[in-house]
Amino acid sequence: MHRAIDVRSKISHFRILIIGRANAGKTTILKKVCNSVEDPEIYDPDGNKIDPEIVRESAERGEHNIENQLIFKSNPQFIFHDSRGFEGGSADEIEKVTYFIRKRAATRELSNQLHAIWYCLPTDGNRPLLEAEDRFFKTSVPLIMIFTKFDGLVTKAFQQLRAEGKKIPAAHAGKVQLAQQMLTTNYRDQLNSVEFKPSAYVRLDDMRLEQSNCIELINETAKTLNDDALLLLFVSVQRNNINLCIRWAVRWALAEEGLTSVVEWALAYFPHVRDVGACSVHLLQFESADCATVTAATRECRFAVLALTDFSDAIILYSTL
């Protein structure tokens, strides 16, 4: 476990490849994840900043460099690589992506490896899954399938119910259930039949709405990370779900002995507390029925994590009932 903290101290970035066709909602998702309203800054593989106008002109000519790094000022600890997806089932495009993944996997530097793949598949179109996409999922990197624009599928379901003669109130009442059935039949079932299945599935509605969030995407990505160091890196880098930080901090702290080790593990998941002027107090209680990982000796314990204004003031309170 202490190896994870040691590795985390040496690596500051979590690297994600995001794949998706045009209008799949990729940029909107990244902005939500990084809590940004601005577009990301773009850097070449050597870390040199690229003029956005140059990138725009290249895109208009059909040129795209998957090696470029997208970084948001609001959370520069995430590094994103963008792929245009396999729009026309292009063998050339799929080869570019698979080569990029293989090359990143071959590097010995963990910081330069690819840590996760987010695959965006819009559900409001007429082509559920391209053949090239069907062949893609053979990868050792955790791959999270993101079904985007579910609200568009709900609209299609409503229209189908109306076409079947349902009255407007009945069509509204049944549209979400029908949309979920369509999602399962047209997307999930197809993906479950491929040899190499995605690591996780996430459904997102219209991410342009102010009340929308990416908490489910963050949670599911964390679940796919089997390496303790990468899990620690991801959880501490993301800033959307403070409860996720608390949950993992307490889980690992339970396995430690001595106040120093407990505090060390708790603080490891909260490096971004340094970046805020104030932090609310969060309370988590772990009862025996809610935490299967707690040992018999500590099953009757209640744990509270207090994230205070300054990172160094974070305290874990331990009391036996």
The radius of gyration over CA amounts to 22 Å
What ranges have pLDDT less than 50 throughout 5 or more consecutive residues?
273-321
The CATH superfamily of the largest domain appears as P-loop containing nucleotide triphosphate hydrolases
Main sheet makeup: 8 strands, mixed
CATH-defined fold name of the largest domain: Rossmann fold
Structural class, by secondary structure, is: alpha/beta
Q: Helical stretch count? A: 11
Biggest sheet, spatial arrangement of strands:
3-2-4-5-1-6-7-8
Number of domains: 2
InterPro entries: P-loop_NTPase
Organism: Mycena sanguinolenta
Protein name: GTP-binding protein
Lay out the secondary structure.
Elements: H1 2-10, E1 14-20, H2 26-33, E2 41-43, E3 49-50, H3 52-60, E4 69-72, E5 75-83, H4 91-106, E6 116-122, H5 131-134, E7 143-148, H6 150-163, H7 168-192, E8 200-203, H8 215-224, H9 228-237, H10 242-254, H11 259-268, E9 301-306, E10 315-320
Parallel strand pairs: 1-5, 1-6, 6-7, 7-8
Antiparallel strand pairs: 2-3, 2-4, 4-5, 9-10
Provide an overview of this structure.
This is GTP-binding protein. It comes from Mycena sanguinolenta. InterPro entries: P-loop_NTPase (IPR027417). Strands 3-2-4-5-1-6-7-8 form an eight-stranded mixed β-sheet. A two-stranded antiparallel ribbon has the order 9-10. It contains eleven helices and ten strands. Residues 273-321 have low confidence and may be disordered. α6 packs across α7 and α10 runs antiparallel to α11. The protein has helices at residues 2-10, 26-33, 52-60, 91-106, 131-134, 150-163, 168-192, 215-224, 228-237, 242-254, 259-268; strands at 14-20, 41-43, 49-50, 69-72, 75-83, 116-122, 143-148, 200-203, 301-306, 315-320. It starts with a helix and ends with a strand. Helix content is 40%, strand content 17%. The radius of gyration is 22 Å and the shape is globular. With 321 residues, the chain is of the alpha/beta class. The protein has two domains: 11-236, Rossmann fold (3-Layer(aba) Sandwich); 241-320, no CATH class.
